[in-house]
User: Fold these one by one.
Assistant:
Number 1:
Amino acid sequence: MTISFLGFEKFSTKINLLGNVNLKTVILEEQKETLDAVVVTAKRPTVKRLVDRLVFNVENSTLSNSNVLDVLKHTPGVIVRDGSISVKNTPPVVYINDRRVHLSADEVQQLLEGTPANNIKSIEVITNPPAKYDAEGGAVLNIKTSKNIIAGYHGSVFGSYNQGFQFPKYALGTSHFFKSQKLTAYINYNISPRKDFRNNFEDINFIENNNTVSSWETDYNRDRESANQNITGTINYDFNDKNSLNFSANTLIAPRANSKTSVNSLTEVFGASKVLDSSFRTLNNLVSEKFNLAFSLGYIHKFEREDEQISIDLHHTSYDFSEFQNVDTDYFLPEVSSPFRENRFQTFSSQNIQLTTGQIDYVLPSDNGSVFEAGIKAVSINSDNVLDQFLFNNGNREEDINNSDIFIYDEKNYAGYVSYEKDWEQWSLKAGLRVERTETKGESLLSNSINTNNYTNLFPSFYVLNRLKNDDEIYLSYNKRIYRPRYRELNPFKYYLNDNAYITGDPGLLPEIDDSFILGYTINSTYTFELYYRYEKNPTLELPIQDNENRLLKNVFTNIDHNESYGLDFTTYTGITKSWNLYVLSSLFYYENNFFAVGTNNELVSNERWSVYANVINYFSFLEDNSLTADIGVDYISSLFLGPSEISGRLGVDINVNKTFWNNRASLNIGVRDLFNTRNFTQTTKYLNQDWFVDSNMENRLLVVGFNYKFGNYRLNVKKDDIELIERDRLEKE
């Protein structure tokens, strides 16, 4: 006789049918399937279009052995260039698992560069974000992490070495993951000791009555040292199938001992006849310290109806930054080695920001395939800023009370939204409306002035997608966005960089309101063409101004009239052969900005330019197991306008080779960025009585070596039937 049941070992015994037989209780032993190893073959990343976003799936792909910043470099529609990330020519807002990252652009880049990509499932590129997301900012990059189903522990260690023509840069980190039946925990730590060099040649012509009366030529050299540390962690606890609690932390620490900047510049002053009149040398030594601590707590309750849920999220960011600089300037006459005048000043500045948010979101699906979403959010921001400047008189340090100030800024935001989405066989539709109320107050103790601004805005969004035959798709989207002024842009301090240059903000800045349209067509799920149009009202611009009368260089944050841009983008991610894949992103776009010339009778100045951007990356795989890969990328951008300045075109070539070994536990990559050292650029500002030229040279060409080793529970001992493979910004102080 044989007894069997699915998932249990078979029970067999011989019996004698001549008489009664008592088998007593038969206990079946659970059947186990032992898998010696699960081998995941690296595949090409895939792209999927949803009604409101593009999803770039990278899990277990050839990009999994890199870092998240490298993944973004290969993500359709995303441009990573000159240390910045942009989508449709604007900086995006970064989210991780639908939680906003409250970091400045530089801090976000450091975080992504120090985070391994082997825990990343997909990158969602949301060019026109729906009502659920904050109306603040441009496009959204939502980084989705993998939902690991493997119980136990595993981790990795990783490091990189980058060598420029002047200084080396290092990165070292480790990540750890643990999962039990109810608890999931993840932590990542990385440190990035580095030193960067920059050289500028600057030429300024001071103009009076349409004639050049003086010219300054400056040789500027800057060394910047840092050793930033990032610690990110997540703990998720599932009480049951319906309730879960999540805690996450994201911390950036930049200790004072390793955060130093040294500037050595020599300026030669020429008269109208180009004869050397005098010169001055400036030494600026700066040390800083930064702590950016962000904590989030989230609770999710799932109802009996499938996909119906309510979530509650709390977040707090504590940002503390301080900086001390010492500036010495010596003035010389031609062919005289001793200075005829010396000047020295010191500044101490600090910024403390406390940001707290609370949010509730509700999702209600219906039986007809539609989804209704609604939510509310409240934000409280307090920013305290201090600037103390000191002058030296006969060697005695004295406070410069005319350039010392305390600026206190408070902001409250209240938001609510509704959204509706419906899918049919060939059509998808989504529409939403978000309302936000903002109340701001800025107080300067030096000027004894208070600026308040209260406003309410509506932010509609609309999306429609039609799936045609042969995997073709056509889609249309629209939304309205807002850019609130950054804290440093509101700060009225005159922060002097040397005797003749300073940066200042304006507490009366208005928010920028954007309207954005996109019309796209995808052929065979492979080739995508997008037409876009964007109009920006009252954008904030850091406007460089040369004061011809007082021989000063000012960088002033101001609202300009408007920006307007439109263009045609083309992207594809396709296979040429079995071992050769191709990614192409190209853009032909028109950009126009209109600004008032501050200091020149506020005349309206207009700049316009058609520009071209192209990025072509070839991916190659070698060997039978595809354990050896290489990619060669070429990117080019023609000249374009950035505010009042024209930025020259540039071309770059990157090469990278990656080898995995030890059963895919380890990987080694070697590459060269900017192979021909052609990514340096010039910046020309020339309008009315402004004439300013800068030629920048940085360590763009880098030899890159990276290593990654994974350890822990990569072998499974589970039932076969259970195996399932599941595919902070405004804080700026420079």
Number 2:
Amino acid sequence: MDKTISLPYNIVDPKSPIPLYYQIYLDLRRIIQEEEIIQPGGMLPPEMEICQAYNVGRQTVRQAIARLVDENVLERFAGRGTFVRQATNLTQFFLDRSFSQQMRELGLEPKSKVLCAETGTVNAEHIPVLQRWKGAPCFTLERLRLGNGDPICHQTTTVITSHCPDLADNDFSNSSLYEILATRYNLAIQRIDHTVRAVTADNYRAELLDVEKDTPLLFVGTRTYTEDGTLIEYSASYYRADRYEFSTSQTCCDD
């Protein structure tokens, strides 16, 4: 991600009625959006180099860059520099599909880095939504979800294992949980309920997702039910908000 970009600057006109910072903003935007040498994740040169290229002061360059940051064209990382923002797949991530299915539909290879996989019993104090199943046997799976190798989501899943014993014997680094439940245990998913809210990254998730601490994330709490209405799993997922937004649709009905 830290590859520096060599920019083909245009000369700015100090006599133009257009402010210098705005001329630089337009030129940088042209370079980023039109020049093929620009790659998402590429790092801009240091501010001083850009100042010398345009023959302007640092404050002028900072104004231009700040506007591009506000427009989500660039992103800044403290102590690292300014980068061309990674391309997003906004409005394509729907709540009625599994992560693996979504990645494949977007042409990305789904992968998971398993951080923790262990059997135990439901701790309702940590997961209040599972209060009814307190003490029931469960399988806890913590994963970093990846798309083409890039971190997308940190996810912790708790599965009630009364209907799916020996779940821990499966390889979850390349397999979908829902696919395993369907093919090995004949458990078809009938309904998925979601709770979505905005949160910020703590130190742990910031490191996992390669973002700064306090970066906005999308939290999605997921409750999954089988055909007979049995709650079988709960997942707490933290998505990079700069990579995805969630979409759903609703059929209109009378009040």
Number 3:
Amino acid sequence: MLVVGYDVLIGFEKHLTFFIVQKLQRVCLRNPVKIEASSKYSTVDTLKQQYLFLPAKHKDCYFVYILTEMSGSTSMVFTCTCDATRLLALILRNLGLKAIPINGHMSQSKRLGASNKFKSGECNILLCTDVASRGLDIPTVDMVINYDIPTNSKDYIHRVGRTARAGRFGVAISLVNQYELGWYIQIEKLIGNKLPEYPAQEEEVLLLEERVSEAKRLAVMKMKETGGKKKRRGEEDYDGEDIDKYLGLKEGKSSKKFRR
């Protein structure tokens, strides 16, 4: 009986406290506004979010297709590894696109240099990892592409938050292959919304396969060539060369073979 009586007393005290708080609100506050916080992670209304389900073997073709469809837009592309930022930058530059990587293997000065090239419009595609992108002051980004789906769903919110800022319109497109579907489902659960599919034309995508494959072959060769050089202790990545020199191309020039 003692335990039951104690529970009743505690319940009465809680009810009394709630009643007193409500009365104080009515007496002390003028035109109070009640705000309810949602437990879901939300994104802004000006952000258009889409996904594209694709086979892993054609991911690069779909990636290039989207960039060409959205040509002229400023785009941040997120990958899960530093090597992927470098490889994709090489592929895109071989195809004549103005892309530049930024990742944790680059020195602070190189990261700032890449960021400045992107902000100035010298390059309109920035390939980055989650870690390298944090702290960057880039006010206007038209599009975010999740080339790799993040394994941590909350990273998705940080990524897409790079666009549609200060009332501007923005687009976020996630490339989802058969191995990443589980991670993508977790993202939809987190944001509490099922996203529409990006309307890609498969026939047009596959027309890019030969050009993209050749661009990738040359990019892999370049990666092996630069990665095979031994570095002395304390020597910067990319051998201290300018980023454009590392990419194997002079500014504003691309191989004629890949020009349309």
